[in-house]
Amino acid sequence: MALDKPYKDVPGTTIFDADQARIGYHLNQFCMSLMKHENRERWRADERAYLDEWPMTEEQKQAVLDRDYNRCIALGGNVYFLAKIFSTDGLSFQDAVSTMTGMSKEDYVQMMINGGRSPEGNRYLEDWK
Amino acid sequence: MARITAAVTTSHVPAIGAAMDLGKTEEPYWKPLFDGYQESRQWIKDNPPDVVILTFNDHATAFDLNIIPTFAIGCAETFKPADEGWGPRPVPTVHGHPELASHIAQSVIQQDFDLTIINKMDVDHGLTVPLSLLYGQPEEWPVKVIPLAVNVVHYPVPSGRRCLELGKAIRKAVETFDEDLNVHVWGTGGMSHQLQGPRAGLINKEWDNKFLDSLIDDPEGLAEMPHIDYVREAGSEGIELVMWMVARGALNPQVKLRHRFYHVPASNTAVGHLVLEN
Predict the structure, then answer these.
(1) In this structure, what are the phi and psi dihedrals at residue B261, rounded to the nearest 5 degrees?
(2) Superfamily of structural domain B3-277
(3) Which of A84, B12, B105, B174 is deepest in the core (most CB within 10 A)?
(4) Interface contact A104, partner B, CB < 8 A
């Protein structure tokens, strides 16, 4: 029987649940490896070769190379793990998070200063149709 | 006997720590936020706890996907500030209280909470930013800290009810510890924020303020709120707020509100802060 996942009905949002964590296990563990300085150096020297050391899917590898964070999340990534990639790139959370919204960084920062994204019209999948 | 006298709840946004570490607290973007903690800094000077049980979550720092404890208590002598990818924060090493922590583990597990015992753990911004907000930038933290790590990253996370009941169990444990200690329980994380996907940047001031009202006056009612309400209304990372329930559960049903503060934004996040006394 399918488990109850009411959060599937929230637009623009992927909940990192046990199923997502299973799909993303190697992707997220690759991210964790970037916590070590020597690994960051090897990663910077040749990203593709470094990724090939991990049993990730080709789709996951390409999403990482493209820094397509929405795609990484769809493929089982979690933002706190993906943060190891964007930190290595020298990006803040705000820099990286803005790339997932389709807004420019400047517009995103301004939206936050203006009080953030309103929940109005952003609660249910139906709201975005 | 040890006793719990107060709870502090606060957001633990990493950018707040960075603003302090880089000397930006007087900048127009940050000043209103730090002004909101001045009263609490004075209060904690006037009412210094011996030990803080600090409820926080690890952000893929000490725990990767190999081991994911729902509730973990730090029983070590010391906890080092973690290197989260840009070097450890320049803050003092955190000193624990192994005797009280072990006593709590023993008591709380006997009250049917399956705590994981951690004897070696580096602590990330989730734990150090709240200390910085309340204590500023001392050479040494003037308090012992027992880290209580709650999984709020990997769903399903514990319910608000479970967290409130854990707070009650911790109180029973503390009150059976023989040493005369003034103990605080802190709850950190939140408030509304979402760090992922096209809906990132969600902030819900109205919901956040109702949450603050209910945490103060109706924690039992608030404990019934399902996860989906947190996610839909306060964003996917707003779920961190269940950790505030641990702190609230450790206090009396009726509490005295000493300080309340709310501010938007800090980076991607709404910042909330309460000081409650028994």
Answers:
(1) -145, 140
(2) LigB-like (3.40.830.10)
(3) B12
(4) no
Q: Do A123 and B232 make contact, defined as CB atoms within 8 angstroms?
A: yes
Count of A–B CB contacts within 8 Å?
A: 151
B94 phi, psi to nearest 5 deg: -90, 130
Task: Tell me, yes or no, whether A4 lies in a domain.
Answer: no
Q: Do A80 and B268 touch (CB under 8 A)?
A: no
Residues A38 and A73 in one domain: yes
Cβ contact B203–A113 (<8 Å): no
| Per-residue pLDDT tens over the stretch B211-269 | 999 999 999 999 999 999 999 999 999 999 999 999 999 999 999 999 999 999 999 99
Are A45 and A33 found together in one domain? yes
Q: Which of B196, B207, B268 shows the shortest C-beta gap to A14?
A: B196
Domain count, chain A: 2
Q: Which of A73, A115, A118 sits opposite B197 (nearest CB)?
A: A73
- Asked if residues B43 and B134 have their Cβ atoms less than 8 Å apart, the reply is no
Give the domain range for residue A83. 15-89
The reported pTM is: 0.97
The model's pLDDT over B102-114, given as tens digits with 9 standing for 90+, comes to 999 999 999 999 9
Is the Cβ–Cβ distance between B215 and B274 less than 8 Å?
Answer: yes
Q: Rounded to an integer, what distance in angstroms lies between the CA atom of residue B170 and that of residue B123?
A: 21
Residue A48: which CATH number?
A: 1.10.700.10
